[in-house]
Design a protein that fits this description.
The protein is mainly β. It contains 5 helices and 46 strands. It has a 22-stranded antiparallel barrel.
Length: 758
C-alpha cells in the first residue's frame, strides 16, 4: 500500500509536460537576420513576448505547454507565424517584405501610422525596393514616384547642385525645393539655396525612404510647401556590415559602406560613400563646339554615430558628418565645388503616462564655390564672367511630445527653430580680367510651433486636425544696389512674416477593403537667401536676385480612395488634388538678345496646379511584385502680379504652363526575387514640358527603361549588374537656350556584401 502511494504521485506528475524552451531565428528572404522583431508565443490563454537580438534570435524559457503558435512581426515585413510542439529543436522563420498596404509611415503624421489608415498620399520605398532599382543616386531612385521632379530633368550625377530643387504635384521646380527633404528628421535642404545634395546620404545606410505628397507646413513649416521626403537610415543598434562596390562605363567607380556594432547599451556606426564619373558631353553633337566638355563629378561623404540606450525607454546619440564634391559643368571654365560639415545630436525618452519626448539639435558650416562664363554663338570659345564663393552656417533644434489618450486619440505637439547666416561674395570679369566685386546676404530665423490631434471618432471614421504657426525673420541683409549690375553692397531693411498652416483630414472606411479620404490645408515657403541675394548664370541665361521677394502661400485640397484586396497583397490608391499658390517665386524673362537672356526672380500673382494621381502595388506571389503610378498635372499661371499696378506688365504669362512641369508622368516596376536571384525592371515616362516661363523652349517627352539583376554566391555575398537608360535614349533635359540632353546608357557591375541584421 505504501508503495502504491509513492507511485501514484509520480504517475500524476508524468502527465504534466516538463517546462521546455523555444529557440528561433528570424531572417528575411535573403537570409539576413532581422533584429528587433517582436516574437509572440501563444497557447490557449497563455502569451509571452520576446524581441530578436542582433543575430535575429529569440528564446522563450519555461514553456509548460503541449503546443502553440509563434507569430513574428517587424517593421517593413509581413507577419510570419509557425506552429510549435515539444521536441522541435529550433524554429526558422522567414519574413516576406510588407505589401504597400501593410507598411507604416512615420513622416505623414510624425508618428507611426499604417499607410492604408492615412489620408495623406504616402509612398514608401523599402530596402527590397532600393535593391531592385538600377539607379545609384537617391534622386534617380525617387524618379519612380509619380509627381517627383527636379529643376529640369537632370540627374545629380551630372547636374549643378543649384538645379537640384524638388517639386511634388506640379508646384513648379526651380533651384529652391518646394518640398522638405530630411535624413532621419534632420534637414537636407541647403540652408542658403534650398536645393539638395542627394549624395550626402550613403546608399547602404538607407533603411527606407518615405514620400508624403501635399502641403505639409502644418507639421514641418516653410520648406514643406508641396510635401516631405524622409530618408530613414538603418538603426545603429545592431551588428551589421553592408558594403557595395561597383564600376561602370564613363569611368564610374562607386563605393558605399555602412557598419555598426553594439556593445551592451552602447552602439557605434560608420557610413561612407565615394563616387566618381567622367560623365558625358550634354550638348548634342550637331550643336556642340570646341568649348563643350563632359559634365562630370566626384564626391565623398562620411559620418560616425555613437548611441547610448537606457533600457527600452530611451537613448541619446551624436553624429558627425563631412561631405565634399566637385563638378565640371560642361565647359572648361564652368565649375563648382562644395564642402559641408555637420554635427547632429538627439535623444528620446518614453515617460509612459506623461508621453514620449524627442529632442534634436544640429549645426552645420559649408562653402560653395562656383564660376560662370559667356559662350560665343558658335560655341568655340568662352570667357569668364563671374566667380562666387558662398559660405553659410545653420543651427537649429526641435522638441516633440506625443501621447496616446485611451484607445481613440493621439496627440502630437512640437517646437522648432532654425537660424541661417549666409552670403555670396562675387567677382565680376570682362575680357578675362576682374572688373568688379559685390556682396549679398543676410540672416534668416524661423520659429515654428505645431500641434496635431488624431481622433478615431467612430470605428469607421478617423479625423486628423493639425496646425502650425511660423514666424520668419530676415535681418542684417545687404545686396548690390542694382541687381542688373551687381557692384558693391548696400544695407537692406529688416523683414518678417507670420503664417498659420492648418490642415483637416478625414478617412472613412466604407468596407474592410475600401476607404475614402479627404483633406484641406494651407502651407507656405519663405524665399531663400539665394533667391533674395544671389544671381546665377546657366549657359547664356542670366537670372537676377530679388531682395523684395515675399513668401509663397498655398491653399490646397484633395480627395481620393484606397482599396485593398487579396489579403492586402493588392493596394490601389487614387487622389484628385487642387493647389493654388499665391505669390509664387518664378524666373521671369525681362529681355532677350541673341547672346543673352535676362531673367529675374519675381512673385507672380498666383498659379494653380490640379490633377489626378493613381498608384497600384501588388505582390503576385512570394517572389513577384509589380507596382506603378500615373500623375496628370495641369499647372498654369492664373494671375501675373500680386500688385494690381503691375498686373498688366506681362499679361501674356497668364494661362501659360508652369515651366518644368510635365502634363503626364507614368512609371512602373516589376521584381522577381528568390533566395539566390533578383531580377527587376523600372520604366519611366515624362510628357512634354517647358524650360521657360514664356513656353517657347520645349523639352520633348521621353521614356527610359532601367534593369538590374543579382545572383547570390553565398549568404551575404551578391554579384549584381545594373543598367540605367537601357534603351540609350538621349532625351531633352534643358534649353539655356542651347539644348542639353540626358546621360547615355550607364551600365555598372559590382559586389554587394551584407553580414548581420538590418
Amino acid at each position: 500500500m505504501a508503495l502504491l502511494l509513492l507511485v501514484a504521485p509520480l504517475s500524476l506528475r508524468s502527465q504534466v509536460p516538463e517546462p521546455g524552451h523555444i529557440f528561433g531565428v528570424v531572417t528575411d528572404q535573403t537570409g539576413a537576420a532581422i533584429a528587433g522583431a517582436e516574437a509572440v508565443f501563444t497557447s490557449g490563454s497563455f502569451a509571452a513576448t520576446q524581441l530578436t537580438d542582433t543575430r535575429g534570435e529569440f528564446t522563450f524559457s519555461q514553456i509548460a505547454a503541449e503546443s502553440g503558435v509563434v507569430r513574428v512581426s517587424a517593421a517593413g515585413f509581413r507577419v510570419g507565424s509557425m506552429n510549435w510542439r515539444p521536441g522541435m529543436s529550433s524554429l526558422q522563420i522567414t519574413l516576406l517584405p510588407a505589401t504597400a498596404a501593410e507598411k507604416m509611415t512615420v513622416t505623414a503624421n510624425r508618428i507611426g501610422v499604417r499607410v492604408v489608415e492615412n489620408a495623406t498620399s504616402v509612398t514608401i520605398l523599402s530596402v527590397p525596393d532600393l535593391d531592385a532599382t538600377a539607379a545609384f543616386r537617391v534622386d534617380d531612385i525617387l524618379r519612380q514616384v509619380p509627381g517627383f521632379s527636379l529643376f529640369r530633368r537632370t540627374t545629380s550625377r551630372a547636374a549643378n547642385p543649384t538645379t537640384q530643387g524638388v517639386s511634388l504635384r506640379g508646384l513648379g521646380a526651380s533651384g529652391a525645393s518646394r518640398a522638405l527633404v530630411l535624413s532621419d528628421g534632420f534637414p537636407l535642404n541647403d540652408p542658403f539655396g534650398g536645393w539638395v545634395y542627394w549624395d550626402r546620404a550613403p546608399r547602404e545606410s538607407i533603411g527606407s525612404v518615405e514620400i508624403a505628397s501635399g502641403g505639409a507646413s502644418h507639421l514641418y513649416g516653410s520648406d514643406a510647401l508641396g510635401g516631405v521626403i524622409n530618408i530613414l537610415r538603418t538603426p545603429v543598434d545592431r551588428n551589421l556590415v553592408s558594403l557595395e562596390a561597383a564600376y561602370g562605363n564613363q569611368n564610374s567607380p562607386d563605393l558605399s559602406l555602412a557598419a555598426s556594432r553594439t556593445m551592451g547599451p552602447w552602439s557605434v556606426a560608420i557610413a561612407a560613400e565615394l563616387f566618381r564619373t567622367n560623365g558625358y558631353i550634354a550638348v548634342p553633337a550637331d550643336l556642340r563646339g570646341a568649348v563643350d566638355t563632359p559634365v562630370n563629378s566626384q564626391d565623398a561623404t562620411g559620418d560616425v554615430t555613437a548611441q547610448r540606450k537606457f533600457g527600452e525607454r530611451g537613448g541619446i546619440f551624436v553624429r558627425g558628418s563631412v561631405f565634399g564634391e566637385s563638378r565640371h559643368n560642361g565647359t572648361p571654365l564652368q565649375t563648382n565645388s562644395t564642402t559641408i560639415r555637420e554635427l547632429d545630436l538627439g535623444g528620446n525618452w518614453d515617460a509612459h503616462q506623461l508621453g514620449a519626448f524627442q529632442l534634436r539639435a544640429y549645426a552645420s558650416r559649408q562653402n560653395l564655390d562656383q564660376s560662370f562664363s559667356s559662350i560665343v554663338s558658335d560655341r568655340n570659345s568662352e570667357s569668364l564672367t563671374r566667380t562666387q564663393r558662398v559660405p553659410a552656417q545653420q543651427v537649429g533644434f526641435s522638441a516633440q511630445w506625443q501621447r496616446t489618450l485611451g484607445t481613440r486619440q493621439h496627440l502630437v505637439a512640437g517646437l522648432e527653430e532654425s537660424d541661417i547666416h549666409g552670403q555670396t561674395n562675387e567677382q565680376g570679369y570682362f575680357g578675362g580680367h576682374p572688373t568688379s566685386t559685390s556682396e549679398g546676404g543676410g540672416r534668416e530665423v524661423n520659429w515654428g510651433a505645431y500641434g496635431e490631434d488624431i481622433i478615431r471618432v467612430a470605428p469607421d471614421w478617423l479625423l486628423t486636425a493639425s496646425g502650425r504657426v511660423d514666424h520668419w525673420q530676415n535681418f542684417d541683409a545687404f545686396a548690390p544696389p542694382n541687381p542688373a549690375q551687381p557692384v558693391g553692397a548696400a544695407p537692406l531693411p529688416d523683414r518678417s512674416e507670420t503664417f498659420f498652416s492648418p490642415r483637416l483630414a478625414v478617412l472613412h472606411k466604407l468596407t474592410g477593403h475600401v476607404s475614402l479620404t479627404a483633406s484641406s490645408y494651407r502651407a507656405f515657403r519663405a524665399p531663400t537667401l539665394n533667391e533674395l541675394y544671389r544671381g546665377f548664370r546657366a549657359g547664356n541665361v542670366f537670372t537676377e536676385a530679388n531682395s523684395n521677394l515675399h513668401a509663397e502661400r498655398l491653399t490646397g485640397a484633395e480627395g481620393g480612395a484606397i482599396a485593398t484586396g487579396w489579403s492586402q497583397r493588392l493596394m490601389l490608391r487614387g487622389n484628385f488634388f487642387w493647389n493654388q499658390v499665391t505669390r509664387p517665386v518664378a524666373n521671369v524673362t525681362l529681355g532677350t538678345t541673341p547672346s543673352l537672356i535676362t531673367r529675374q526672380r519675381q512673385n507672380l500673382g498666383s498659379t494653380v496646379s490640379q490633377g489626378l494621381e493613381l498608384e497600384a502595388s501588388s505582390q503576385l506571389s512570394g517572389s513577384v511584385t509589380v507596382s506603378g503610378g500615373y500623375q496628370y498635372t495641369h499647372a498654369t499661371v492664373t494671375n501675373f502680379s500680386v500688385d494690381p499696378a503691375l498686373a498688366g506688365l506681362n499679361p501674356s504669362l497668364v494661362g501659360l504652363n508652369l515651366p518644368q512641369i510635365p502634363r503626364h508622368q507614368f512609371d512602373f516596376q516589376a521584381r522577381y526575387s528568390r533566395q539566390f536571384i533578383l531580377l527587376a525592371v523600372q520604366g519611366r515616362f515624362g510628357g512634354n514640358q517647358f524650360d521657360d516661363d514664356q513656353n517657347t523652349l520645349l523639352l520633348r517627352r521621353y521614356f527610359t527603361l532601367d534593369a538590374t539583376a543579382s545572383h547570390r554566391l553565398r549568404p551575404g555575398v551578391d554579384l549584381f549588374v545594373a543598367v540605367e537608360n537601357l534603351l540609350n535614349q538621349r532625351y531633352d533635359v534643358g534649353r539655356t537656350p542651347v539644348l542639353s540632353v540626358g546621360p547615355p546608357i550607364l551600365a555598372r557591375a559590382g559586389l554587394r556584401l551584407r553580414f548581420g541584421s538590418r
